[in-house]
Amino acid sequence: MEDKLDRAGYLRRVDPASLPLFEQRQLRKRWRYVGLFAEEVMLCAARAEVGPLTQSFWVLLDRQSGQQWNHTALAPGSKEVTMDGPRLEIDGPGLRASLRLGEVTPIEVTCPSGRASAWTRKQVGMPVGGTIEVPGQRWEVTGHGVDDESAGHHQRQTSWNWSAGVGTAADGRTVAWNLVTGINDPAQGSERAIWIEGEPAEPPPVRFDRPNEIDLEAAGSLRFATESEHTHDDNYLVIRSRYRHRFGSFTGSLGGVELAEGLGVMEEHDARW
Q1: Which of 21, 29, 122, 270 registers the highest number of CB atoms within 10 A of its CB?
Q2: What is the CATH number of the domain that holds 243?
Q3: What's the CA gap between 193 and 124, in Å, rounded?
């Protein structure tokens, strides 16, 4: 591990495109997750690789009716979810979507993971807009979202709780967050971040002790109200995954900033990969 440290003692950046299939007997994983949080709808899409296996999925929630659509594609080379820089295209059963992502200041870290390391680059709170269509309905949407790029040789057994969201503070400032336990979460140099007016800062470690609450200790707490839930369990013998994903709204405070409104995602993932 010492040859991966820079002069300040931090792990060097991982190049996701050049990772070998194995390192320190740990399999390569790569994924990108994009989420849109808006008044009318919430949508997410992801593409993931675990070694030679690939998977993509998407979830759409109509917040007015409460109806949810989702689909998972396991076919190698599937073009159901296409991510190309700031562009997201979905062409799936019952859904067509074309979205364009803006930018905010990203956070980027490389953290230890067992004997190897894991990298992530995240933006939360950037503008997202475009069109979403299901049979009989079309939305021209403008909202904010999350863009999560991750790669590395994560340890064989990995379990995490994660939340990302966007909102407005009581004083009118824009707020966004990326909070996690179980992955990329050392006390310092973690992927945890709170964006105020588009600029990120790292909060102290957090706790997900209750299903609908995030404890930031002295920095506040967030309470979550579920609007929809998507789960899937995968078992490929040597690779197993149990996944729970929820869209909803948030109240509470972040780093001493009181939320007037907040939307986002809560995720639980237990993987043996």
Answers
A1: 122
A2: 2.40.370.10
A3: 9
The answer to whether the Cα torsion of 61, 248, 81, 101 is positive or negative is positive
Structure tokens at 202: 């790292």
pLDDT mean across residues, the chain: 94
List beta partners, residue 89: 82, 98
Average pLDDT over residues 37-46: 99
CB 100 within 8 A of CB 94: no
Confidence of residue 204 (pLDDT cuts 50, 70, 90): very high
Burial bucket for residue 207 (CB in 10 Å: 0-12, 13-18, 19+): middle
Structure tokens that stand for 100 in this block: 């364009």
The answer as to whether 12 is a domain residue is: no
Q: What number of other Cβ atoms are within 10 A of residue 239's Cβ?
A: 15
**Structure-token match 């470690």, residue found:** 205
Residue 5 lies in a domain: no
Q: Average pLDDT in the 152-174 region?
A: 97
Structure-block tokens of residue 113:
């993971």
**Is position 31 within any domain?**
yes
Number of domains in the chain: 1
Tokens of 171: 């004083």
Predicted TM-score (pTM) of the model is 0.94
Task: Provide mean pLDDT across the span 49-78.
Answer: 94
